[in-house]
Amino acid sequence: MTALSINLNKIALIRNSREGNYPNVVDHAQLCIDEGVEGITVHPRPDQRHIRPSDVRQLAALVAPLAAVEFNVEGNPFAPALADYPGFIELVEETRPDQCTLVPDSDDQLTSDHGFDLNSAGEKLIPIIKRLKDQGMRVSLFMDPDLAQIKLAAEVGADRIELYTGPYAAAWGTEQLEAIFEQHRAAAALAASLGMGVNAGHDLNLDNLAKFASIPELQEVSIGHAFTVDSLAMGMSNAARAYKALLR
């Protein structure tokens, strides 16, 4: 069964619109865990538009004793320190998540919208990947379903890739869907043949998830935006159950 990791960025975004700590990110993580999700994901950015370093620390403490739940921290490995943001690599080295997903986003991006170009970034990533793996973290790279790039991901030492599924979600209901789905299926198969695990995420939802999860190599999906929207309509517990049902 494909594992479900819930991204809590949007819970933090709502909290940050007011003073105080409501909604509480840790409480909502616990609610998801109580419903049997296999992972909690956060993407702390230097501008702290949603998840803050304190959230990462508290969630790490929450998940650490739980054998059945993994903590995944994703972000730009080159993000420097800014105010009380210690820098991305420094934050993950402090909190030691089970999985660190490296993403090539910049501060001016609204959201992650492309995978790494390892022709240009690969050499810089090699020592970072090794550094994190030496501390016991699984390292995943956010990637487009480009077969040449997937081969490079294996060469730089990634344990897993996370396929960027934005184009797949955007093509839902169009004639382009099958071709884009086949690109992702082929990328997943290649990654597995090269010894890497396969994750996926971005704009997956209750409509398009089941088809994508039919890819046999898929080990984990990370879902946040759509999950939060569905939680508003149906309640977070019901939303977690609905997503888990699709992944069965």
List keywords for this structure.
single chain, 248 residues, globular, TIM Barrel
Descriptive account of the structure:
- With 248 residues, the chain is an alpha/beta fold.
- The chain has a single domain (3-247), classed as TIM Barrel, CATH 3.20.20.
- It is built from 11 helices and 8 strands.
- Helix 6 runs parallel beside helix 8 and helix 10 (225-234) packs across helix 11 (236-247).
- The chain is globular and about 45 Å long.
- 43% of the residues are buried.
Give a summary of the structure in a few sentences.
The chain has helices at residues 9-15, 25-34, 53-63, 88-95, 118-134, 147-155, 166-170, 177-193, 209-212, 225-234, 236-247, and strands spanning 3-7, 39-42, 70-75, 99-102, 138-143, 160-164, 197-201, 218-223. By secondary structure, it is of the alpha/beta class.
Q: For the terminal residues, how far apart are their CA atoms?
A: 6 Å
Share of helix, binned? 40-55%
Estimated structural class? alpha/beta
Shape estimate: globular
Topology (SSEs and partners):
Blueprint: E1 3-7, H1 9-15, H2 25-34, E2 39-42, H3 53-63, E3 70-75, H4 88-95, E4 99-102, H5 118-134, E5 138-143, H6 147-155, E6 160-164, H7 166-170, H8 177-193, E7 197-201, H9 209-212, E8 218-223, H10 225-234, H11 236-247
Parallel strand pairs: 1-2, 1-8, 2-3, 3-4, 4-5, 5-6, 6-7, 7-8
Helix pairs in contact: 2-3, 6-8, 10-11
